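Example 3.2
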Amino acid sequence: MPHFSRVRVNIILFNPDEFPTPAPNRASLTLPRADPRAAHIIDVLRRKPGDTFDAGLVDGPRGKATLAAISPDDASLALTFLWGAPPPPLPPLTLIIGLPRPQTARKILNEATALGVSEMHFIATERGEPSYAQSTLWTTGEYRRHLIAGAAQAFCTRLPRITFSNTLTATIAALATGQPGAHRIALDNYESPAPLGGHLKHISRAPIILALGSERGWTSTERDQLRAAHFAFAHLGPRVLRTETAATAAITLSLAHLGLV
């Protein structure tokens, strides 16, 4: 589970497999005091026995949790849960992103999840640094912690689907099968005839797939692949943006077009 800082989050998330049986409308859990969520409940939310807080099951319902008791030795918290309805499905927006340096990927994972995307595919690109795929962010499953932090910030339980280290070819092929009717847009500073905002005006329905190159941009071969896969090219204006800034801007424009922000 995520390492919570002293910044207050809007919902505390729990995995379904933390409960001994499939969680019904009511459930209970003993949470070790050493768990970062326990520290957040006590030290940041300042809950005392009998107090409630917002909780959710990952990819499941939201609800209210009650701090029923703190063990005499302060080693654990006894929590009870009353679950409500799950949040709505994630917006029909998918990102393809040239695998960036790990610190950039962490920001994108968190912010894109908070804003609301259904899928993120981090791909190996011709100009990308191959060693980025060997980061502990990916090899240890750390990336999931950033998804959960983004969802907790957004008061949501749903996490986007993530893949990493696939090729552009494989990712395009998989999305062609999984999202055959999606509108496809590749962001590019060099060969784009129109801004993203103007291009979105001509899209009347979802879903949307946005492709962002690596920090060094697309190669001519990759542009040819994207065009062959029916990606239109668009830009975000004359300024050169960091990858995480471009991703945030593109997501926000797309969600606004879909009437979700």
